[in-house]
Design brief:
The protein is mainly beta. It is built from two helices and eleven strands. The termini are far apart. The relative contact order is 0.24.
């Protein structure tokens, strides 16, 4: 029977190799997605994650109660790269907590601390021991210089309206790094806070910033959270 007017019949032959390739992709799509994600994570770690940052994670962990009692706790350290822009500390709460953390970063000049930047960070639903990131405008020529991070807790209350929770700051009885010291209410104490620092100059993309002012594109931590 001849084709109906207005309708056309087209025979298309798909090569067997193309069909096999398509079936292989369909059967291995999960593996391909995982591999792609792995490559992306590796590139991110290479380009953006600091590789020479200052980290103090001692073995003998203690919790400093002075933070919850309104005391001022500080850690002085030596930066290892230019572009210092973040210090992370670990705050503990015995229950769901709302509070305000007043903090500042200072340059250490002999026995004096000269404030560079300060801010107040509201914390809601804080519970357990939680990493808290303190971000500030990039300090360009920070490599080799000494800085201090100071924290004070205020307006501490239970998030659910219950009894006032206990607030602590994670520290260590040992000193995992040289060139650091711990201050509690202005008095030096043996040990170290548990802390971590990040610097733009620690990253591959941040390398051009070492020793000079960073372009906006590299300065990823311009403001405090």
């Amino acid at each position: 029977m001849p084709p109906t007017p207005g309708w056309y019949s087209i025979d298309v032959t798909i090569p067997a190799s193309t069909i096999a390739t398509r079936r292989w992709i369909q059967s291995h799509v999960g593996l391909l997605v995982a591999c792609t994600a792995g490559v992306v994570l590796q590139l991110y770690a290479l380009l953006f994650q600091p590789v020479g940052r200052v980290t103090a994670q001692g073995r003998h962990v203690i919790l400093l109660n002075e933070l919850g009692a309104g005391g001022r706790v500080a850690e002085a350290f030596q930066a290892e790269a230019d572009g210092l822009s973040e210090v992370d500390v670990w705050i503990g709460a015995s229950g769901s907590t709302a509070m305000i953390l007043d903090w500042r970063v200072s340059a250490v000049r002999g026995a004096q601390l000269e404030p560079i930047y300060q801010a107040s960070l509201p914390l809601d639903r804080l519970s357990g021991v939680t990493e808290t990131r303190l971000r500030f405008p990039t300090i360009d020529a920070s490599a080799g210089r000494f800085f201090a991070i100071e924290v004070v807790a205020r307006d501490v209350r239970a998030a659910d309206g219950g009894a006032r929770p206990e607030i602590t700051l994670a520290a260590s009885r040992d000193k995992p790094r040289n060139n650091t010291y711990l201050l509690v209410d202005g008095r030096e104490r043996w040990g170290s806070l548990r802390f971590d620092t990040r610097s733009v100059g620690d990253t591959v993309l941040g390398a051009p910033c070492r020793g000079r002012r960073c372009p906006i594109g590299f300065d990823v931590h311009r403001h405090a959270d």
